[in-house]
Write a structure and sequence with these properties.
mainly beta; globular; FG-GAP repeat domain-containing protein; SRCR; Integrin_alpha_N
């Protein structure tokens, strides 16, 4: 009888351990993906005869929790902007890195920095969203140049005003000559989760000044780690490709008679539909 009782107790113990292990395997959540410590993009090499230094890559690094907006999923705000610059040809160190680091109350809050030609001279500038702990986001353009002594230098060329409220963000998605005046404009959606307003801005001195605006469109949902849509140039007609405010329709936005106007391109099933629309198929 004692042997039988011992066997029963051992069997019950084994069963309990097995059930516990099985429950842990079923219930325990999978490890969360690591937070990116850097987001970056590479651009083209400088053409023959281009003025150096030339920005060939740019990155955001130094993740920080001092501005906990968390609108970009795992991508936190960053403190540093680094540009990899080509400074010479056929020399021992053809590239160097130039870094700008922000102190509070400012951070970089973006899915990625961009190498876009904002001035229209064929040379890329750096476009990135910067946020203030109490004023929200603004769009900034940075320029790679030289100091008086010839050392490569990274400076803020121009910016928009801050939106004006904490935890208000904007999503840049392209650059192009929308107004056909021979000068590029930057396109972004201001507050893509709330106000859903596309804005065009152009460079004037040290300011990015408004060119046009259109409500009811968006290109980002909270938690997404990239920005949807973009700008296309179809036979000389520059258009923005965006989602309608309810994410049900594909919308093309262009310039007509001095203002931004939209036209419907069809149903929006998934974000890849916006990418496909950039090919000028419709």
């Amino acid at each position: 009888m004692k042997d039988h009782d011992n066997i029963m107790r051992i069997s019950l113990l084994i069963h309990t351990i097995f059930v516990g292990i099985l429950a842990a395997l079923i219930i325990a959540p999978a490890p969360a993906p690591a937070q990116p410590t850097e987001v970056s993009v590479a651009g083209p090499k400088p053409p023959a005869g281009a003025s150096l230094p030339w920005p060939v890559a740019v990155s955001l690094s130094g993740p920080t929790d001092r501005y906990p907006h968390n609108v970009l999923g795992r991508i936190a705000a960053f403190t540093s902007l680094t540009v990899s610059a080509q400074v010479c040809e056929d020399c021992p160190q053809p590239r160097i890195g130039i870094r700008v680091t922000l102190d509070a109350p400012l951070v970089f809050e973006d899915a990625t920095p961009r190498l876009w030609d904002v001035t229209g001279d064929g040379r890329p500038e750096i476009v990135v969203v910067q946020s203030h702990e109490s004023k929200g986001a603004r769009l900034t353009v940075w320029e790679l140049g030289k100091t008086a002594s010839g050392t490569p230098d990274l400076t803020l060329l121009a910016s928009t005003d801050f939106i004006g409220t904490r935890f208000r963000w904007l999503a840049p998605f392209g650059v192009g000559d929308f107004t056909s005046d021979g000068k590029p404009e930057i396109a972004y959606v201001e507050t893509p989760h709330l106000g859903k307003t596309m804005r065009l801005v152009g460079l004037e001195g040290d300011r990015l000044v408004p060119r046009g605006a259109l409500q009811g469109v968006t290109n980002h949902r909270i938690g997404e780690e990239d920005i949807a849509g973009g700008v296309r140039d179809c036979a000389g007609r520059v258009e923005a490709i965006l989602a309608s405010g309810d994410w049900r329709r594909i919308v093309a936005v262009g310039w007509q008679e001095g203002e931004l106007v939209s036209r419907d391109l069809g149903a929006l099933q998934d974000r890849q539909d916006l990418t496909r629309a950039l090919t000028c198929a419709n």
